[in-house]
């Protein structure tokens, strides 16, 4: 059964599976984004940098967080539109070999004036294998509301 706006409540928290970031992930992101900054791509040059080696792109981390949350399965069938990213912070570096997990908490819900959809205000937290927060922020989503002929998920 698909989730819809009516199934979400303030305070709900959903946790994702985990995923290990590889050097190939970072290099592929650099390639398709055209962001080949040495801080991400130069292992030799970055060996003695403040981070002790290359770090992943911040937007790669955000993309991984969104992908991990999408795999939870509660937002996929009801999503209408991503509304914005607010207060997103890159708290700590992400490195190749880090295993990341995401959680998303429902902060607020608001039904649209038409009643056909609603807005979920969501707080994302991305953590590494040590449970250190590496990124966090708000990503709001418009989702479909329940039709009269739909029942709640079991």
Give the topology, please.
Blueprint: E1 13-20, H1 23-33, H2 38-41, H3 43-46, H4 58-72, E2 79-90, E3 99-111, E4 117-127, E5 133-144
Antiparallel strand pairs: 1-3, 2-5, 3-4, 4-5
Descriptors for this entry?
154 residues; alpha+beta; Thiol Ester Dehydrase, Chain A; 5-stranded antiparallel β-sheet; 4 helices; 5 strands; elongated
Account of the protein in words:
The chain is elongated, with a radius of gyration of 18 Å. It contains four helices and five strands, in the order E-H-H-H-H-E-E-E-E. The protein is an alpha+beta fold. The chain has one domain (5-144): Thiol Ester Dehydrase, Chain A (Roll), CATH 3.10.129.10. The chain starts with 12 loop residues before the first strand and ends in a 10-residue tail after the last strand. 23% of the residues are buried. Strand 3 (99-111) and strand 4 (117-127) form a beta hairpin. The chain has a five-stranded antiparallel β-sheet with strand order 1-3-4-5-2, covered by helices on one side. The model has no long low-confidence stretch (mean pLDDT 94).
At CATH level 2, the architecture is Roll
Mean pLDDT equals 94
* Level-1 CATH class name: Alpha Beta
Order of helices and strands: EHHHHEEEE
- Taken together, the total number of domains comes to 1
Rounded to an integer in angstroms, the radius of gyration calculated over CA atoms is 18 Å
**How much of the sequence is in beta strands?**
35-45%
- At CATH level 3, the topology is Thiol Ester Dehydrase, Chain A
CATH superfamily: Hotdog Thioesterase
Largest sheet: 5 strands, antiparallel
In terms of per-residue confidence, which ranges show pLDDT below 50 for 5 or more consecutive residues? none
Distance between the termini: 7 Å
Strand order of the largest sheet: 1-3-4-5-2
Structural class: alpha+beta
The residue fraction in helices comes out at: 10-25%
User: Number of DSSP helices?
Assistant: 4
Q: What is the count of β-strands?
A: 5
- Shape designation: elongated
């Amino acid at each position: 059964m698909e989730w819809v706006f009516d199934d979400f409540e303030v305070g709900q928290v959903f946790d994702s599976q985990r995923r290990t970031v590889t050097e190939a992930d970072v290099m592929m992101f650099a390639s398709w984004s055209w962001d080949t900054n040495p801080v991400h791509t130069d292992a030799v040059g970055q060996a003695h940098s403040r981070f002790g080696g290359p770090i992943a792109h911040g937007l790669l981390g955000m993309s991984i967080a969104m992908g991990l949350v999408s795999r939870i399965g509660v937002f996929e069938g009801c999503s209408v539109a991503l509304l914005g990213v607010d207060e997103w912070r890159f708290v700590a570096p992400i490195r190749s070999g880090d295993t990341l997990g995401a959680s998303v908490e429902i902060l607020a819900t608001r039904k649209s004036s038409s009643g056909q959809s609603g807005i979920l205000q969501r707080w994302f937290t991305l953590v590494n294998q040590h449970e250190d927060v590496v990124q966090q922020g708000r990503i709001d989503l418009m989702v479909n509301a329940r039709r009269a002929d739909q029942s709640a998920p079991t």
